[in-house]
Recover the amino acids of this structure.
């Protein structure tokens, strides 16, 4: 499923008109009529009254089409036109005239005085439809329009946003001053970045997408760069009978330090559950007994360690020699922030050329060494930071990143030419070619120590089975979150643990009707 920037939405809208001859009035009619159908089927009761808040642009035009269809279906509808009528877009003006001829009730708000006169009316409606601003809004909402949005948000009615909640930046998902808090959002053609990025995702409520008539060929000829994955099973080929363990990936996991051995265990067990053929956990040698006892089905190999029992720089050659025969590597789970270990990480990754996922403290090893990070450019590597780690890695504050997340993701990709998986409620996966996948599977039950180690194990397993870094990252993120969502059928969010995620990874490959939760 494609996800569009506002600029891409304008491009495809224009392409439909100029290349394929789809009249703009038809696109608006499709948008409004199909939105009205969703509202009528999914939101309204037979006796509900509806206020449609329309701006003077094309988003307001969509709202007027909605008002017309609901009025025509005998709902009690009042259309509130917000702004100067002499600033109507051509299409909004046409639909405004139709509403007038149909004797649909219309009221006008062009200043705060107008708003003050009618404000009490809003409390009498069952449903409020927001068609004030569309995806083209930039900057703050000010004056009486801001007051109007604040009033709407205080109402106890159901709020339906058309295309995007007014006040929300469709590119960044941010709010400059105020934005509608919608219960339902109906968007046109495709979801936009701002529907998925926070805080935008919280403001949209339940999402619906309507097909407004843009030809599919338009997307095929110029595919958008961003998408979400609707499913992932087609990425996994059927296993042939005449195969052996070497056909499913020989992987190495570099993990562990005192107090953090569980990270290596969880990453290893997740890789095993995802179908890796051969797994070796490389670890500081004094931790051997712990890992030997904990991992029955995974091989272990102790390597030279520091006095603090972490990976030593002296282990570099032996580790490099070992991974030469591997298909993929994971480095970072529980590896510690020991300075010598951080140097080991940087040197290993500079000399290694195997597909590798870099997580946790292996990411932090580059916090103050952008030159070392630059040395990795073009390697088949996946960095998997959460927001704080990405802040350390990029040198930007969390506030800066949150205010324009995609800007900093794209900058990182341009600078370092690796695959990035920025973990969060909406995870962003990006590759050096400019492709972006948003992942929206998962839930707050994953917010517990060890969940990231499970993800590392999933991804390194996929790398070892021949997935490209970009596909391994985005398919892995999808699976990680989808298993957590499956577990909601049996557990409260607070009871979801990394061990339960691992024990239920197999359910990704099972038809839903035959699923059953497995306890670790």
């Amino acid at each position: 499923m494609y996800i569009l920037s506002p600029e891409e939405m304008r491009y495809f809208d224009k392409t439909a008109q100029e290349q394929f001859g789809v009249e703009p009035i038809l696109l608006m009619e499709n948008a409004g009529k199909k939105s009205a159908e969703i509202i009528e089927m999914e939101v309204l009761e037979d006796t509900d009254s509806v206020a449609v808040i329309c701006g003077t642009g094309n988003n307001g035009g969509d709202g007027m089409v909605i008002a017309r269809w609901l009025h025509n279906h005998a709902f009690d509808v009042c259309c509130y036109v917000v702004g100067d009528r002499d600033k109507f877009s051509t299409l909004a003006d046409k639909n405004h005239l139709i509403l007038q001829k149909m004797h649909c009730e219309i009221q006008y708000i062009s200043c705060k005085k107008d708003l003050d006169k009618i404000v009490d009316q809003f409390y009498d409606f069952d449903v409020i439809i927001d068609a004030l601003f569309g995806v083209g809004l930039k900057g703050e909402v000010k004056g009486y329009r801001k007051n109007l949005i604040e009033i709407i948000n205080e109402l106890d009615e159901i709020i339906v946003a058309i295309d995007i909640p007014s006040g929300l930046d469709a590119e960044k998902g941010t709010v400059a001053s105020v934005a509608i808090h919608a219960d339902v959002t109906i968007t046109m053609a495709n979801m936009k970045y701002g529907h998925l990025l926070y805080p935008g995702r919280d403001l949209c409520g339940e999402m619906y997408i309507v097909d407004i008539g843009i030809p599919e060929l338009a997307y095929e000829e110029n595919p958008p760069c961003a998408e979400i994955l609707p499913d992932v099973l087609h990425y996994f080929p059927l296993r042939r009978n005449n195969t052996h363990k070497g056909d499913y990936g020989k992987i190495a996991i570099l993990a562990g330090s005192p107090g953090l051995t569980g990270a290596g265990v969880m990453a290893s067990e997740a890789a095993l559950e995802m179908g890796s053929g051969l797994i070796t956990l490389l670890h500081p040698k004094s931790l051997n007994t712990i890992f030997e006892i904990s991992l029955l089905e995974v091989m272990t190999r102790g390597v030279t360690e520091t006095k603090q029992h972490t990976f030593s720089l002296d282990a570099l050659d032996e580790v490099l020699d070992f991974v030469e025969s591997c298909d993929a590597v994971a480095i970072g789970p529980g590896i510690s922030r020991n300075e010598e270990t951080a140097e080991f990480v940087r040197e290993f990754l500079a000399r290694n050329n195997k597909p590798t996922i870099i997580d946790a403290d292996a990411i932090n090893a580059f916090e103050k060494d952008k030159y070392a990070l630059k040395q990795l450019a073009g390697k088949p590597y996946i960095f998997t930071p959460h927001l704080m780690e990405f802040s350390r890695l990029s040198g930007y504050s969390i506030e800066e990143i949150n205010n324009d997340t995609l800007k900093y993701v794209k900058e990182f990709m341009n600078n370092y030419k690796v695959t990035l998986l920025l973990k969060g409620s909406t995870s962003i996966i990006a590759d050096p070619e400019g492709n972006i996948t948003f992942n929206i599977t998962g839930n707050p039950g994953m917010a517990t120590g060890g969940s990231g180690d499970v993800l590392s194990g999933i991804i390194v397993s996929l790398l070892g089975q021949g997935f490209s870094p970009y596909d391994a990252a985005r398919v892995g993120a999808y699976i990680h979150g989808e298993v957590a969502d499956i577990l909601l059928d049996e557990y409260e969010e607070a009871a979801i643990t990394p061990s339960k995620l691992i024990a239920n990874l197999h359910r990704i490959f099972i038809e839903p009707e035959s699923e059953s939760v497995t306890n670790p």
Q: What stands out?
A: Residues 24-42 form the longest helix (19 residues). The CA atoms of residues 51 and 122 lie 7 Å apart. The radius of gyration is 27 Å.
